[in-house]
Design brief:
With 403 residues, the chain is α/β, with parallel strands linked by helices. It is built from 16 helices and 11 strands. The chain has 3 domains: 52 residues; 89 residues, no CATH class; 184 residues, Rossmann fold (3-Layer(aba) Sandwich). A hairpin with an 8-residue loop joins strand 10 and strand 11. Keywords: Bacterial flagellum biogenesis, Bacterial flagellum protein export, Cell membrane, Cell projection, Cilium, Flagellum, GTP-binding, Membrane, Nucleotide-binding, Protein transport, Transport.
């Protein structure tokens, strides 16, 4: 992924410079006011600095909206001096345009059924996005009969099931050789790394224990290296700290015989784009054997989650690790964004204990963190002696089993 930083005297000028140099594939990440020009700090003037990256594909041109007035004029211009018969055809064409416009005029908002109003309120209380709530509301109006809408338990169970159907669970064919955790400061990456090291080192899913190594490139946060060293000492798992591409490459070669290598990354602000760009280049040393996981706190608000998805997109993360589920009962914010972006969830954490407070992600565990939906939650019953394998959201809701 190629990053850039450009400066100019004005916002328009810097955007023009970016278009001229990098073309339509340029994507802006952030901008800020800076002092440009001058000599030895004197006579500098206000300017704009923009950072961004080059996307793999250029954006598709927007579809041109139909301008009915322009279309009428074109038709009338084309038939000047024509016969009466032709004019009759023109009038028919103009009338057809008008009918199309009438068809697409916004309809008066219909009065919603009380059950739909109650469901919209429940989804809003769970902090689902406006788009997600609208989708559920439209589906209720489209698929539910008046008899079903009169029964709140049926409405609640249906929406509960539809939410479950939209959640995607990460299903690796084999355990990755290298797992990299990225994410903003304060989401619990280091603790999550220790939990993963413990469950895989002890034997994941009842399997044989694997040989685990831990690497940290978080040498900026005070105590970060000491924290992961402590975890490694307790679990008897080797830990290494690296500071450059070459350091990481050498350490990976040293750990070549290990079954699993877990990499903890820089705990920097997602707005520190230059440090994130350096980290992205360093992680190229991991090659194609690595899988990247975006670590996300369940308490993060919707707008910030969307910004994080965009910020860490250059890392090519395969799935989400959702932390701090014990700190909230409203995760509609997370479900809204991960389903909108079609991102699977790999692991869930709900406390600080290692390794107890980490679980493989599943639809029921996520649904149980919704507030309300009492009657729907009653259908979630664990089944003993469950066979291996992870059903999709739709299979889980239908079967009513824990994963």
């Amino acid at each position: 992924m190629e990053y850039f930083t450009e400066r100019a005297a004005s916002h328009r000028e810097v955007l023009q410079k970016i278009r001229d140099r990098y073309g339509e594939r340029a994507r802006v990440l952030t901008q800020r006011s800076v002092r440009v020009g001058g000599f030895l700090g004197m006579f500098a003037r206000e300017g704009i600095e923009v950072t961004g990256y080059i996307a793999k594909e250029a954006p598709k041109p927007p579809r041109k909206m139909l301008d009915p007035e322009e279309e009428r004029k074109k038709i009338l211009e084309s038939v000047k001096g024509s016969s009466d018969g032709t004019l009759q055809q023109v009038l028919k064409a103009v009338n057809a345009i008008q009918e199309r416009l009438d068809t697409h005029e916004p309809q008066k908002q219909e009065e919603l059924h009380p059950s739909i109003v109650a469901m919209e309120q429940l989804l809003e209380e769970n902090e689902f996005s406006a788009g997600f709530i609208r989708e559920m509301s439209n589906r209720l109006r489209r698929e539910m009969s008046l008899e079903d809408l009169d029964r709140q338990d049926i409405v609640e169970s249906s929406v509960f099931q539809w939410i479950g159907e939209k959640i995607k669970i990460y299903e690796p064919r084999v355990t990755p050789k290298i797992m990299i955790l990225v994410g903003p400061t304060g989401v619990g990456k280091t603790t999550t790394i220790a939990k993963l090291a413990a469950i895989y080192g002890l034997g994941h899913k009842g399997g044989k224990p694997v040989d685990v190594r831990m690497i940290t490139i978080d040498n900026y946060r005070i105590g970060a290296k000491q924290q992961i060293d402590t975890y490694g000492s307790i679990m008897n798992i080797p830990v290494s700290g690296v500071e450059s591409f070459q350091d990481l490459k050498k350490t990976l070669a040293l750990y070549e015989g290990a079954d699993l290598i877990l990499i903890d990354t820089i705990g920097k602000s997602p707005r520190d784009y230059m440090k994130l760009a350096e980290m992205r280049e360093m992680l190229d040393a991991c090659g194609h054997d690595a899988e990247v996981f975006l670590t996300l706190s369940s308490t993060t608000k919707i707008s910030d989650i969307k910004d994080l998805f965009k910020t860490f997109e250059p890392f090519g993360y395969q799935a989400i690790i959702l932390t701090k589920l014990d700190e909230t009962q409203r995760i509609g914010n997370v479900i809204s964004v991960i389903t909108e972006h079609n991102k699977p969830v790999a692991f869930l954490t709900d406390g600080q204990s290692v390794p107890q407070d980490i679980h493989e992600a599943s639809v029921p565990r996520l649904l149980m963190n919704l507030d309300g939906f009492k009657s729907a939650k009653m259908s979630l019953r664990p089944r003993e002696g469950r066979a291996s394998g992870t059903p999709s959201g739709a299979e889980y809701v239908k079967n009513g089993v824990w994963e």
